[in-house]
User: Which sequence fits this backbone?
């Protein structure tokens, strides 16, 4: 759950330049769910 | 769940085997397996695929023989893939491998095929016929309900005016999509085994709906670029945010234009977290989790399923708590963006303002129309652009004198190098407009004969034909029988507006008759006017500016205004079209009052769709003759851009005027300050 929290906060709070550089490649590593 | 390569291989091979046994052609088989792999690939990545649920329940019920569960998993895979593929076509998804390889038409076709195969596979199951029938009925019913859910999903995407929709209708979409699908997959094995399935079905609905809702929130906050925000899907977070009275204006302003830049998406993530979108999710989660737990109590011993439920609950709680945390962190970070349209206006002016008589906008017919090798329509399109340049305060004397010089004996012809067509009222109206506004008195003489011819053609009813009979070469009856589009509300409105600007006193009575005639042609079934030449949006502009100049507050015009207002999309546009957006804004600006949010979001849309060279895409404006007698549309980027610029110019003036009004009101009610305070007071920018 910590991973989910970190993901949300980093995407919304980190500065815009950093977000563009740190592309989140695979959200499945963070949260296991299926897409409906 | 752990990555399960073995289960993936079994189901994948089984799908392939079914297709081979059915003798599917190789290319079709490859495409179908490509689509199915999107559903099944999740299994080997450790993600939960919807197809897995018959297996999950079989293992929970401790079945030794899993064959039936695997068969049902294959059926669920085909069914889910069909629905998912159709959903990706409808959402114009960019990352679907099958759509990218085979195209949209083929994807729709193959989605249907996947669905039909799932039905055939039910029939092939080694179970009693009555159980096959129950399964077919359940899957069909599920698909039927999912289509309803999808209907509202599509209908509500990019819609702005949701005052009549309640939040529970939005959550109903989730139940009709994710909810019923999982309900069907949960209940499939019990139905096939002829055991009571009702509780499995109910559990599936609540679990599926909650998982769908989690997915909608995840899409916004857990991806650098949310696809739902790109297309403006009205999922619960977006809907709730737009309908939060504290944030409606801010959110709708932000959502206007394009949402593809990471920067903008970051701002949206922050702002939406401040709205009641979070509370709505929390409320829904509380209610849904209670119902899920109730159902689990009715189905004791389903350990794996309980684990999956708990995982979903944990994810939902973590997401909700983090959004509250985000809200606290951004409380002081909010940036108020001041929208400035000056740069867009300046870019567009530079793009438009050329000194070549706008040759790149001329309609040139080279295919032999009217048996002429070359016909040059070099009056009307430039005249439209000149009207915009006048709004910008640009001197148009040279260009105007040029088109006035193209006059032939009877007046101005659409194709200035021939008199094989009659003179027309659209060109005349446009020239009257420009000459009237520039007070080019020296040009007034040029209009003596054309206006005389016009007056001979204006009917007592106020009807103004498009093509003018000159009692010489062109007779009225011949024109009515031969020439296309002799009655058009937009053309009439343009002519009468031109007369209004040229000499409103002299032509007052004629204009009033014209207005009455135009009003009589209002189409109540469409709440608008239908013209022969122009789009309904441009016609709305032409009619509005005429009527509002003379007789404001006409019932049918107010109906048209309300309809137009109601059609604005969440991205600020009308019809996702810059030209149509400009047309509607220009029409709305002719009314006494305009909703500031409607104006601002429309202008933001125009600004964000402007290209790097200052232009907008060319769009169809009026019908013109195509090769070999086909009807085509005149379409030119300079002319379309001139309307977009005109809307920005007039819109900016209106916003400035409203700002000035607001400032005066504030000043009026402010207590008197001492001289020293006045000198030191900061300049307050209110937007």
Assistant:
């Amino acid at each position: 759950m910590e991973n989910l929290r970190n993901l949300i906060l980093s995407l919304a709070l980190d500065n815009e330049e950093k977000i563009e550089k740190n592309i989140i490649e695979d959200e499945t590593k963070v949260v296991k769910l299926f897409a409906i | 769940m752990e990555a399960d390569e073995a289960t993936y291989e079994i189901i994948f091979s089984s799908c392939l085997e079914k297709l081979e046994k059915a003798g599917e052609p190789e290319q079709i088989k490859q495409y179908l397996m490509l689509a199915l792999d999107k559903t099944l690939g999740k299994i080997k990545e450790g993600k939960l695929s919807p197809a897995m649920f018959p297996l999950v329940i079989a293992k929970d019920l401790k079945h030794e023989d899993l064959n039936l569960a695997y068969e049902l998993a294959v059926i669920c895979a085909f069914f889910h893939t069909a629905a998912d593929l159709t959903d990706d076509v409808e959402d114009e998804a960019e990352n679907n491998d099958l759509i990218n390889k085979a195209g949209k038409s083929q994807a729709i076709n193959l989605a249907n095929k996947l669905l039909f195969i799932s039905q055939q596979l039910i029939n092939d199951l080694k179970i009693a016929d009555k159980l096959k029938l129950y399964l077919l009925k359940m899957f069909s019913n599920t698909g039927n309900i999912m289509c309803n859910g999808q209907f509202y999903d599509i209908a509500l995407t990019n819609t702005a005016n949701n005052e009549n929709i309640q939040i529970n209708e939005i959550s109903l979409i989730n139940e009709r999509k994710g909810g019923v699908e999982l309900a069907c997959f949960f209940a499939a094995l019990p139905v096939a085994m002829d055991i009571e399935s009702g509780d499995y079905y109910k559990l599936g609905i609540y679990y599926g709906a909650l998982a769908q809702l989690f997915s909608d929130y995840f899409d916004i906050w857990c991806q650098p670029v949310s696809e739902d925000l790109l297309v403006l899907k009205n999922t619960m977070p977006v809907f709730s945010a737009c309908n939060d009275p504290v944030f409606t204006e801010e959110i709708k302003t932000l959502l206007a234009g394009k949402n593809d830049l990471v920067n903008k998406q970051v701002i949206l993530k922050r702002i939406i977290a401040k709205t009641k979108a979070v509370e709505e999710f929390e409320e829904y989660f509380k209610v849904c989790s209670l119902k899920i737990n109730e159902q689990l109590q009715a189905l004791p011993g389903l350990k794996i399923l309980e684990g999956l439920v708990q995982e979903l609950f944990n994810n939902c709680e973590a997401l909700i708590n983090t959004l509250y945390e985000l809200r606290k962190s951004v409380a002081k970070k909010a940036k108020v963006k001041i929208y400035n349209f000056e740069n867009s206006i300046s870019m567009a002016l530079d793009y438009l303002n050329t000194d070549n008589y706008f040759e790149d906008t001329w309609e040139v017919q080279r295919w032999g129309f009217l048996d002429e090798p070359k016909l040059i329509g070099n009056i009307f399109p430039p005249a439209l652009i000149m009207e915009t340049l006048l709004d910008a305060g640009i001197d148009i004397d040279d260009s105007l004198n040029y088109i006035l010089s193209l006059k032939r004996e009877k007046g101005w012809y659409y194709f200035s190098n021939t008199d094989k067509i009659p003179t027309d009222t659209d060109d005349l109206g446009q020239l009257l407009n420009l000459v009237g506004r520039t007070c080019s008195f020296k040009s007034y003489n040029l209009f003596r004969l054309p206006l005389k011819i016009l007056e001979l053609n204006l009917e007592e009813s106020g009807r103004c034909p498009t093509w003018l009979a000159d009692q010489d070469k062109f007779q009225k009856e011949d024109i009515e029988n031969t020439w296309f589009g002799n009655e058009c509300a937009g053309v009439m409105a343009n002519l009468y507006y031109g007369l209004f600007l040229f000499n409103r006193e002299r032509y007052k009575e004629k204009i009033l008759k014209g207005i009455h005639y135009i009003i009589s042609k209002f189409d109540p079934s469409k709440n608008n006017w239908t013209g022969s030449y122009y789009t309904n949006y441009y016609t709305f502009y032409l009619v509005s500016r005429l009527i509002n100049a003379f007789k404001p507050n006409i019932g049918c015009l107010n109906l048209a205004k309300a309809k137009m207002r109601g059609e604005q999309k969440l991205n600020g546009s009308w019809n996702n079209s810059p030209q149509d957006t400009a047309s509607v804004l220009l029409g709305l600006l002719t009314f006494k009052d305009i909703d500031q949010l409607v104006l601002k979001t429309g202008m933001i849309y125009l600004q964000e769709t402007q290209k790097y060279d200052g232009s907008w895409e060319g769009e169809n404006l009026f019908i013109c003759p195509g090769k070999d007698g086909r009807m085509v549309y005149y379409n030119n980027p300079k002319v379309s851009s001139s309307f977009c610029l005109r809307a920005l110019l007039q819109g900016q003036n209106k916003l400035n005027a409203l700002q000035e009004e607001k400032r005066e009101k504030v000043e009026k009610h402010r207590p008197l300050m001492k001289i020293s305070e006045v000198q030191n007071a900061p300049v307050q920018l209110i937007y």
Remarks:
- Residues 637-669 of chain B form the longest helix (33 residues).
